[in-house]
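Crash report, auto-generated. Payload:
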Amino acid sequence: MYEIVIDRSLCSGFGACAELAPEIFEVDGGGLVSLRLGTSDNPAVLDAAAACPMGAIEIIEEQAA
Amino acid sequence: MTPRTVVIVGAGLAGARAAETLRAEGFDGRVLLVGDEPVAPYERPALSKEFLAGTRDEASLLLRPPTFWSERRIELLLGRRVVSADPGRCVVRTSRGDELPFDELVLATGARPRRLPRELPTGVHELRSRGDARALRQELVPGAHLVVIGGGFIGAEVASTARSLGVHLAIVEAAPAPVARVLGPEVGLLLAERWRAHGVDVRLGTGVAHIRADANGRVDSVLLTDGSVLRADAVLVGVGVEPARELLPARPAVHVRAAGDVAGPGHWTAAALDGVAAARRILGLPVPGPQPHYVWSDQFGLRLQVVGTPAPEDAFELDGSADSFAVRYLDASGRTRAGLLANRPAEAAALRRALLEDALALAA
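Recovered output after restart:
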């Protein structure tokens, strides 16, 4: 399971994350990304974090209990 | 062979992203991030906006919290300028006279503002570093007169911020319209109209003949080539930037990579992607394909977003009103090459995706 944390102050509205993992990230009406879900088990969130030019997405890997 | 020491010269966005990518991908050797400014990597775009306005402080500019770097064993060597790089011996030399050996070198030295080829009085500023922004901010007192030379994004953003602080503004642009070379004269004139509506004295198609100083050597007016004179308590020169290429080897060298603005005309997001790509190349990892260029500007109540790179010969379609418009730049075959959005932030992601798909289709 991955916990997803975004820093909206870094977000520049590039939108690559919403394209790679649309069930997690969406670009809101203000052009900044927001989270649909705070956690996911889809490794696409790792690609989304890697694709963010601003490094605004942090993924914390949670160990299954 | 896996390198043991990576030296990254330039602690801007490209350098920072290169360093953190090395660690994120599991690189275990030394990572040295060398910067000439005495400050950890920070957000440069805010310098002309919130930081200049005083609504964001220095701590909030930092790209990462202070402990981020030490937690990842990224060694920050700040306030240190690299004066030469020797790809043969694999060392760089700093302004303190010491040498730093490397196995891999990333040159992310960025760009610096173009300067006017003349002696300048005090009160004439440029804006690239946090120190520049701090000095300029001192000048922005209500009622002061600021002359901005150059109608590019930096100049317009500073003008917008200064106007909100009660400063009198003039913008001088040598071309018949600002940003015309990049975005076309029609868009440029639209922006100039907006500046005027916000009380800016906009002078187009005229150059600067002379920057005059008073008896104390302090700027007091700017004389234009059309003979007019603008009162100036301070001046900002914003006539573009040039890559800081001094350290680039004359011939391509293995183990030396350039990233960010130094490698070509780039922008904030391009620099970030470039830093990531440099780190991945060092580690022999696949590098993501190129992305459409993306740049944004906040000025006089407009958020401008440019996706892709318009060419001078492009046809364009403009729709919307002065407060919210979209421009599509079309190549000879009618395909969208680039787009400009003004206060249409929700459309940026879709536009970027469309351009990316076009580029992929062309390459296939």
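Post-recovery validation: The longest strand of chain B covers residues 302-308.
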